[in-house]
Amino acid sequence: MLMLTFPLLLSSSILFMNLSHPLSMGLILLVQTMLISLTLGLSSYSFWFSYILFLVFLGGMLVLFIYVSSLAPNEIFFSLDLFIMFFIFMSIFTIIALVMDPILSNFSHISLPLSSLDYFNSTPYTINWIYNSPSMIFTIFIVSYLLLALIIIVKIINLFKGPLRLLT
Sign of the C-alpha dihedral, residues 116, 122, 124, 130? Predict the structure, then answer.
């Protein structure tokens, strides 16, 4: 599964460089965030850190989406050439990843023993180091900084003024 997410990340990065509309760029960023969260969740002991990362990034993307949609003109941002190029890159990188995958290239080992699945349960990639003694102070500092920034932003925003443009 990890070998399939890397070609998707690479092809979406190439597609991102060729886009010009901010809403389509936001969509590609959202896809990349889902792929990075999936990769992080599969390579660590639990999915909690990737869930939190995805939810925080999704909240930020929602704020950016509201801001950009109020500024961007209402134009069609779908281009057939970019869509075809995206699927060509995605299919090429997926085929390369499938060919280079050692499990799929050697068909005699398709049925994995159950002992090889215990590898993921014994990996040392846990997120306990965030909450342990040396880095606990840094984590508390980051949480309090984000809370303070949230309170300051709420106080700065004037609730009596409307959005940047009228939604008609």
Answer: positive
For residue 160, is it within any domain?
no
* DSSP per-residue string spanning 10-31: HHHHHHHHT---HHHHHHHHHH
Cα distance between residue 47 and residue 51, in whole Å: 6
Distance CA 77, CA 57 (A): 23
Pairwise CA distance, residues 100 & 124, whole Å:
26
Residue labelled with tokens 């909450």: 131
pTM of the model: 0.52
Helix (H) or strand (E) holding 115: helix 114-117
Q: Can you give the residue range of the structural domain that contains 7?
A: 2-108+116-127
- Position 139 in a domain: no
Helix (H, G, I), strand (E, B) or coil at 167: coil
Using one digit for the tens of pLDDT, what is the confidence trace for 99-155? 666 655 554 444 444 444 444 455 454 566 666 777 777 878 888 888 888 888 777
Separation between Cα atoms, residue 3 and residue 10, nearest integer Å: 12
* Cβ atoms 44, 127 nearer than 8 A: yes
Distance CA 95, CA 126 (A): 32
